[in-house]
Amino acid sequence: MLQEKRIGFIGAGAMSEAIIAGLLQTKQVEPKQIFLTNRSDEQRLQDLINQYGLSAKATEIKQIASADIVVLATKPKDVPEAMRYWSKKLCSGQLLISIAAGIEIAYLESFLSTEVAIVRAMPNTSSAVGYSATAMCHGRFASKQDVECALQIFRSIGAVWTVDESLMDAVTGLSGSGPAYIYYVVEALEAAGIQAGLEKQVARELTLQTFFGAAQMLMQSGKEASQLRQEVTSPNGTTMAGLAELNRHETQKVFQQAVLKATERSAEMGKELNKVGT
Ligand SMILES: NC(=O)C1=CN([C@@H]2O[C@H](COP(=O)(O)OP(=O)(O)OC[C@H]3O[C@@H](n4cnc5c(N)ncnc54)[C@H](OP(=O)(O)O)[C@@H]3O)[C@@H](O)[C@H]2O)C=CC1
Ligand SMILES: O=C(O)[C@@H]1CCC=N1
Question: Global pTM?
Answer without folding.
Answer: 0.95
